[in-house]
Every structure is written in structure tokens, then in C-alpha cells.
């Protein structure tokens, strides 16, 4: 694919039955457009909401686009990032690059930290308070080992920022759950525990994790400026990555998945 500054950006959201989610995602894309005027920004969903990703890609091709950069609005690697999105891209005539997910990355940690602070988190005042404090990083969960590693890395980066333990926990498909993580921390004498929401928008999983919180719970990341910058960073990374090597038949792959 020939990189070009106006190569369309396709933000790939998961989709949700929660009516608040689509509006949050659209508002996020509006902020991306405001930060990068002139960049064509489109939305495609993996499931549940329109437009679905194949329809978005088909529309781009029908309007004469020859290429696109797909940025997953997802916070770790998993089946959607490694299989569903590349397969959808491969089913179109577009030359597509699939960017890395949004996490782990320091900009993601910036957004998580800011949302915790907005919810009322303050650094422990002394060593005694530090020994009783912790954070649970609540994420969607996946059976993919790569997803778990990414979430654990994000938790580690957030722990470095906060100076207290940060334990990853999940709403589904992985362990521990948020209640289990809270109980384990309480057994270690950590009772001042906040929940950081590693979710891009409101939805069933974010609500479920917030309901288990004994204290403050951060809001989902939503339209935080750091998330906007991170989407564009992943776009730029993928757009300017070296072209893939030709296959043994001399063809250049139509879909490039960026690490």
C-alpha cells in the first residue's frame, strides 16, 4: 500500500447493545477529526451496531479509495484484533493496514489516570495509607493469552504511575473477576481500593464492574484527549510502517497487520 496523508482512517469499534455506547464512539471520532482536519475518519463495528466494518470498507471502495488504515478501538490483543478485523479487511479489494490495539501504551495510562483522578483518587498521604491502597484495573476479558499479557502490561504501567499495586481483573472469559480481585486485595490488608475502567465507552461490562466496586470507580475512557491522540498515533504508526515483503509468488499482501 502506498502511504499517503489522506489514507482513510477506519476506527473499528466492537459494538454494544447499550444505547450510550454509539454516541460516545461518535463523539470520540468527532474529536479525532477536530485534531486532524482533512483526515477522512470512518467508523466500522465488529457486531451489534451499524455501520458494520465490511459495509464501511465496501463503501470506501465504492467511492474510489484504494487503501485504508484500520485502528481497533480495543485495548488489548484478542480474537477480534488478530482474526476478525484482518479477515474483514481481506474480504475487500482495499489494501489495508490493521494497526495495533490501543493498549498497552503510556497514552492509555494517561487516560486511565485522569479518569481515576476525576473519580476522586488521590495519592496515599503516607506509607500507612499506601500499604492499604490499591487499584483494580477492570477490563472486558478474553481467552487470548495476548490479551491477558497486554492488560497486565497496562496494569504495570498504571502501577508505576500511581505508586500502588494495580491488579488486572475481568468482566468475562478470564480470571480473576473484579469481586475476586477485590477479595484477594482485602485479604492482604488493602481496603482502600479503587476500580479503574479499562473500557472505551459505557456498556454492560463497565456497568457490571462498577457495581462490584466498594469505593470509587473511574468512568470509561470515552472522549479523553489522550485516547484521541492514541488513536491518531496508532494510525500514523500503521500508515508509515514498512511495506510487507512480497510473497514467494511476487505479490504484496493486501492486508498488513502491524504489531
UniProtKB/TrEMBL annotation:
Domain of life: Bacteria
Keywords for the protein's UniProt record, in alphabetical order: Lyase, Metal-binding
Pfam family name, one: CbiX
Signal peptide: none
Protein name per the record: Sirohydrochlorin chelatase
Amino acid at each position: 500500500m502506498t502511504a499517503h496523508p489522506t489514507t482513510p482512517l477506519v476506527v473499528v469499534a466492537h459494538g454494544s447493545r447499550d444505547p450510550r455506547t454509539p454516541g460516545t464512539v461518535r463523539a470520540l471520532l468527532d474529536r479525532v477529526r477536530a485534531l486532524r482536519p482533512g483526515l477522512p475518519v470512518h467508523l466500522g463495528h465488529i457486531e451489534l451496531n451499524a455501520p458494520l466494518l465490511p459495509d464501511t470498507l465496501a463503501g470506501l471502495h465504492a467511492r474510489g479509495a484504494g487503501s485504508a488504515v484500520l485502528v481497533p478501538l480495543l485495548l488489548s490483543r484478542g480474537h477480534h484484533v488478530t482474526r476478525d478485523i484482518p479477515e474483514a479487511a481481506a474480504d475487500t479489494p482495499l489494501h489495508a493496514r490493521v494497526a495495533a490495539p490501543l493498549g498497552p501504551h503510556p497514552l492509555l495510562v494517561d487516560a486511565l489516570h485522569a479518569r481515576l483522578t476525576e473519580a476522586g483518587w488521590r495519592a496515599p498521604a503516607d506509607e500507612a495509607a499506601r500499604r492499604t491502597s490499591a487499584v483494580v484495573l477492570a477490563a472486558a476479558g478474553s481467552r487470548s493469552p495476548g490479551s491477558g499479557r497486554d492488560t497486565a502490561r497496562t496494569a504495570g504501567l498504571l502501577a508505576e504511575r500511581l505508586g500502588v499495586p494495580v491488579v488486572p481483573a475481568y468482566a468475562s472469559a478470564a480470571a480473576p473477576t473484579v469481586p475476586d480481585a477485590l477479595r484477594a486485595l482485602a485479604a492482604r490488608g488493602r481496603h482502600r481500593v479503587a476500580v479503574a475502567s479499562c473500557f472505551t465507552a459505557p456498556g454492560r461490562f463497565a456497568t457490571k464492574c462498577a457495581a462490584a466496586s466498594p469505593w470509587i470507580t473511574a468512568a470509561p475512557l470515552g472522549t479523553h484527549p489522550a485516547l484521541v491522540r492514541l488513536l491518531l498515533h496508532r494510525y500514523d504508526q500503521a500508515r508509515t510502517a514498512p511495506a510487507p515483503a512480497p510473497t514467494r509468488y511476487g505479490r504484496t499482501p493486501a492486508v498488513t497487520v502491524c504489531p
